[in-house]
């Protein structure tokens, strides 16, 4: 019995050991499998995770590329919607280091459009302004061939029409009486001394007597005391220099007679218009005094000289003048439809060009890319052709360029430190020093930091006397600006003369060294263009000179400052639509926008770009 119990205990221990071992092996096996399954599930889950859902896009403002955010929203400066802008080249693309690559979404939001560069015949409508003038070839100036007294006057006022051979005045001349007596005496020697007779007769002819008048003297045998002055042409008396009873000397001016049956229309053409104007071009014109009545003619002459003060040259057309309805000094507006001298030129839209005045920039579209890609390129522009530019150099026919959204592409290039309009050498844009709206490269910032003197220091060092004199110029300029706002041409000319007088009173000897040289450079274009405003006819031409006056005067004010008790602040205002959307600035003492380039037509067009405090 005891042995049985011992065996049972041993068997129990064995069964218990086997059971424990089995449980341990089962736990080990299933636990490992579940862990492996969890790991595999995690791996599968990780592999299945869509990394593309993570948005790698940088959001920026097309107008202020220094703004960068990792999510969409509005620009904190101008409140425009931010656009996505991130280079996402495919792995197979051979990317140029200066290439700007955009996502499809970014290109769509930026409204980028492209076109292929093609050749065409450049055409342009040139708008001209001018006045009617008398034909200089049909002007006769009558002078006294001999001294005497005006006994009778048949022309009593200027503007009187006369016919060829008509009597203008009757003259008594003692010298002429003596010459007639010499002729009568020489008749007796006509056979024996013919040379003496011929000389006496020639003397009278040199004094403007006709053969009929001389023959009449010979027939009567007595000298005539009074002689008639006859009109050499049919026309209009433009000037009358004598009155009844005047005594005139030999060579004195008597009358000026002009034939107005044909007249000239003299137009003013700027230098930029000259490539489009050639002899024979057709011009349609209208006159302010005859609205609705069209005239036309062809260019017959282009002045070989340019007026150094107004920077224009004269272009002439000739018109018949039946009934003398066209009168000298009438204002005329002309439209010349011209084709460029050379056809088949490369033409690109103006919207495709970013132009700083020194560089013209386009962005080439790379067509062999999966994503929209562009490259910066500087080109040389030829003349304007309406809404197009002629390309002189830098592009080839068939290349594809961006024609819309170009500024946004340039903003992307600035953001990524690649060559752009404002930073042609590339380099990351630094925002730490630049408080304006235009980003600058690190190299440009370093150059600015190395300059020994800034504008603020120049303002402090400018003598007060000079600031006061420049303040007077600014005061007159503001009157000139108001005159342009009113579109009053006479008021504009008067204000320009006052501004010029104030400018001439500025004592440049107050400034020394570099400041003196700077003022000399700024003063000349201001003076030249004020003279242009005074001399040119037509409010639009005057406005073009006003734009240059504004730019140079603004440079002077920023450089030297002003002192005027009536001016505490100046507002630099800008109209983007002036001069065919090229834009123009003006200076105002008020925040209220009153556009001097359009007047009542678009009085409120513009915005404040900068404020100067004094």
Outline of the structure:
The protein is α+β, with helices and mostly antiparallel strands.
As a whole number of angstroms, the C-alpha radius of gyration is: 44 Å
SS strand fraction = 25-35%
- Extract low-pLDDT stretches: 1-9, 23-55, 87-93, 428-457
Q: What is the strand tally? A: 31
The major pleated sheet works out as: 7 strands, antiparallel
Mean pLDDT: 79
Helical fraction: 25-40%
Tally of helical segments? 13
Distance between the termini: 124 Å
Structural class, by secondary structure, is alpha+beta
Morphology call: elongated
Number of domains: 4
Task: Characterize the structure shown.
With 614 residues, the protein is an alpha+beta fold. It folds into 4 domains: 100-121 and 343-450, conserved putative lor/sdh protein from methanococcus maripaludis s2 fold; 136-258, OB fold (Dihydrolipoamide Acetyltransferase, E2P); 262-339, Elongation Factor Tu (Ef-tu), domain 3 (Beta Barrel); 455-613, no CATH class. Helices cover 33% and strands 28% of the residues. Strands 4, 6, 21, 22, 23, 24 and 25 form a 7-stranded antiparallel β-sheet that branches. Strands 7-16-19-18-17-20 form a 6-stranded antiparallel β-barrel. Strands 8-15-13-10 form a 4-stranded antiparallel β-sheet, with no helix packed on it. A hairpin with a 7-residue loop joins strand 1 and strand 2 (68-69). The radius of gyration is 44 Å and the shape is elongated. The termini are far apart.
């Amino acid at each position: 019995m005891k042995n049985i119990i011992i065996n049972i205990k041993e068997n129990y221990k064995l069964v218990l050991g086997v059971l424990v071992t089995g449980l341990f092996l089962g736990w080990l096996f299933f636990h490992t499998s579940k862990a492996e399954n969890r790991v595999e599930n995690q791996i599968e889950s990780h592999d299945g995770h869509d990394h593309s859902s993570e948005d790698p896009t940088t959001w920026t403002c097309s107008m202020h590329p220094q703004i960068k955010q990792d999510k969409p929203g509005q620009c904190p400066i101008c409140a425009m919607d931010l656009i996505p802008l991130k280079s996402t080249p495919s792995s197979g693309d051979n990317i140029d280091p200066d290439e700007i690559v955009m996502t499809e979404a970014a290109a769509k939001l930026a409204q980028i459009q492209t076109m292929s560069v093609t050749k065409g015949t450049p055409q342009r409508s040139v708008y001209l302004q001018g006045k009617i003038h008398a034909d200089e070839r049909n002007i006769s100036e009558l002078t006294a061939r001999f001294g005497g007294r005006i006994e009778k006057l048949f022309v009593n006022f200027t503007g009187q029409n006369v016919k060829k051979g008509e009597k203008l005045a009757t003259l008594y001349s003692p010298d002429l009486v003596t010459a007639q007596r010499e002729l009568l005496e020489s008749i007796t020697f006509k056979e024996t001394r013919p040379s003496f007779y011929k000389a006496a007769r020639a003397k009278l002819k040199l004094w403007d007597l006709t053969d009929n008048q001389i023959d009449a003297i010979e027939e009567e045998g007595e000298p005539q005391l009074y002689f008639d002055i006859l009109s050499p042409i049919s026309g209009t008396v433009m000037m009358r220099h004598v009155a009844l009873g005047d005594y005139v000397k030999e060579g004195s001016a008597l009358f000026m007679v002009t034939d107005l049956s044909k007249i000239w229309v003299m137009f003013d053409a700027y230098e930029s218009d000259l490539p489009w104007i050639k002899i024979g071009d057709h011009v349609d014109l209208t006159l302010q005094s005859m609205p609705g009545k069209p005239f036309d003619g062809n260019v017959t002459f282009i002045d070989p000289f340019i007026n150094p003060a107004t920077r224009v040259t004269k272009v002439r057309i000739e018109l018949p003048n039946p009934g003398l309805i066209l009168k000298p000094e009438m204002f005329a507006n002309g439209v010349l439809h011209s084709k460029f001298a050379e056809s088949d030129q490369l033409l690109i839209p103006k919207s495709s060009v970013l132009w700083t005045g020194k560089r013209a920039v386009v962005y080439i579209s790379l067509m062999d890319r999966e994503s929209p890609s562009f490259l910066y390129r500087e080109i040389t522009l030829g003349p304007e052709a309406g809404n197009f530019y002629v390309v002189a150099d830098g592009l080839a026919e068939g290349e594809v360029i961006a024609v819309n959204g170009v500024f946004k592409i340039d903003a992307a290039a600035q953001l990524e430190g690649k060559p752009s309009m404002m930073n042609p050498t590339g380099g990351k844009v630094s925002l730490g020093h630049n408080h304006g709206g235009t980003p600058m490269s690190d190299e440009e910032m370093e150059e600015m930091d190395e300059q020994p003197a800034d504008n603020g220091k120049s303002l402090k060092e400018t003598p007060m006397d000079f600031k006061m004199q420049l303040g007077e110029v600014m005061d007159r300029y503001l009157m000139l600006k108001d005159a342009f706002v009113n579109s009053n041409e006479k008021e504009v000319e008067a204000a320009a003369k006052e501004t010029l007088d104030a400018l001439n009173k500025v004592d440049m000897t107050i400034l020394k060294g570099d400041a003196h040289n700077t003022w000399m450079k700024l003063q000349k274009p201001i003076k030249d263009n004020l003279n242009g405003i005074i001399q040119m006819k037509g409010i639009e031409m005057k406005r073009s000179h006003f734009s240059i006056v504004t730019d140079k005067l603004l440079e002077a004010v920023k450089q030297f400052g002003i002192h005027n008790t009536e001016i505490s602040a100046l507002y630099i205002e800008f109209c983007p639509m002036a001069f065919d959307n090229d834009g123009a600035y003006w200076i105002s003492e008020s925040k209220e926008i009153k556009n001097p380039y359009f007047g009542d037509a678009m009085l409120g067009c513009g915005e404040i770009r900068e404020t100067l405090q004094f």
